[in-house]
Amino acid sequence: MDAVRDSGNAKAEPHSSVEADELNLPRLLEKRRLNIDRKSSLDERSLSELSLGGNVRNVESYDSMYSPMATTGARSGWDTPASTTPRASDPHPMVVDAWDSLRRSLVFFRGLPVGTIAAADHQSEQVLNYDQVFVRDFVPSALAFLMNGEPDIVKNFLLKTVQLQSWEKRIDRFKLGEGAMPASFKVLHDPIRKTDSLAADFGESAIGRVAPIDSGFWWIILLRAYTKSTGDISLAESPECQKGMRLVLSLCLSEGFDTFPTLLCADGCSMIDRRMGIYGYPIEIQALFFMALRCAFWMLKQDAEGKEFIERIVKRVHALSYHIRTYFWLDFQQLNVIYRYKTEEYSHTAVNKFNVIPDSIPDWLFDFMPCRGGYFIGNVSPARMDFRWFSLGNFFAILSSLSTPDQSAAIMDLLEERWEELVGDMPLKISYPAIESYEWRVVTGCDPKNTRWSYHNGGSWPGWLLHPYFHHSLSLSLSHYNQLLIAANAVLLWMLTAACIKTGRPQIARRALDLAESRLMKDGWPEYYDGKLGRFVGKQARKFQTWSIAGYLVAKMMLEDPTHVGMVSLEEDKAMKPAPKRSASWSC
């Protein structure tokens, strides 16, 4: 809708240890009904429980596996919510200011808080749609409130959003799928009748009139975060939420002509709501899709309807993890393999399975790719690879355990090796590099708002994930792009922080947080920054942008109490064995 505001080091041959055909799911599912015990650890209900015989794993909790403070601090377990009382006032002035600003952004429906508006910039002449509650944008706000022991607003948001999902959705004469979640909603107050009503946008007001693919994924991920934080399983097991999850899954798991397990996306259907050549199989959507599938697996009831979806989730997760780990992974060694690809191969023995032309490798990549490190590239489809780095996709690959442990470490290695390019003066760049000149004209259609180093095309976003349908998957080879696409934000800051804690490198997050603290409050919590290094407040950036505020708070609280990361992180599933190892210190 937002027309105006818009992972191991080597390319190994990873293999899932269990193929879908080998699963005897009906027998296993009948064997037991998994009870989620409030006294249990943070360990997830694993896919391996089904694929490896149905026995519940007695694995150490998430906190003890990943948190360096697990032995010294309180845990966010089922019987110990993440925070039972509001946090004490932090002496840092930014924290006090951030909480005050976040509370001023609250939106109320019939007396109950149901979300936060996108921005509260009272100096702006045009409100536009910044006074709406966006599903994606609310996630960092929700995490902040959960960590502060205020879950009611999150519960209200989840219930209100799933109610909106049931609305009939039409664009012109076409009816959208029943499971589509809204991009945003607005509370309308009638002062005369003293009533409140809701107006939701499912894409009919968006640039290009496209529905948001990722809204449903974020809703499922947030539902799981709420359950993990509070220990309240009644919400996830309510008929409304169970149906909401099934409807989202039915859209994503429907059978068609796809030959890949990845999810096909149209231009402008996700974070980027403007023409940016975004179509195909972007890593951001695949990582969120994977995370949502695993979260839904954990929360779905094993009744007649739930079992069917659990079976489909198991098969899809195994296929998706293999596909992403095999074909999306890039490091120095794999780049050399692609560089030597032969083309026009036919038969099952083909090495260049997607018939990628080596000459399509962009020049910037040879200098960008270090000897140490690696990442999941932006997009893979027939005869096309988008080699750009995308922060969200890579960080969520770590958090969801879509990446193997070696790949997760390599992503962090790359971030350290290319700190100036990927972080710069204002963390965090959402993608690298930017487009300009001829490519800008072809890809964006000469979009005057997405000129280089501005907005979606090179603007630095210390706040949320850009905007309601912002999605990254630049077409073609992007050759000669020697610049950065700096779209970065504090939601990425909290994602970076969570990924750093999970991989045992919190010092990286602290370094990035120090950069953000030097500017954000002083500049009035702007929506985004312009310039190659993100030094200038954006030309049309709103001040007091909620995701900038909330993302900072979440990152800050995660560093103070790393057990919070359990809300947004999943353990590696033992049924999905990592790829054959190659040294994480691979060098040229």
Automatic annotation (TrEMBL):
- Outline the segment boundaries, as ranges, of region: Disordered: 1-24
User: Belongs to which family?
Assistant: Belongs to the glycosyl hydrolase 100 family.
What gene does the UniProt entry assign to this protein?
A: CINV2
Coiled coil start-end: none
Q: What does this protein do?
A: Invertase that cleaves sucrose into glucose and fructose.
User: Pfam families from the xrefs?
Assistant: Glyco_hydro_100 (PF12899)
**What's the protein called, per UniProt?**
Alkaline/neutral invertase
Question: Is Transit peptide included in the keywords of this UniProt record?
Answer: no
| EC code | 3.2.1.26
Name the SUPFAM superfamilies on file.
Six-hairpin glycosidases (SSF48208)
Q: Which UniProt keywords are present, listed alphabetically? A: Carbohydrate metabolism, Glycosidase, Hydrolase
Top-rank taxon: Eukaryota
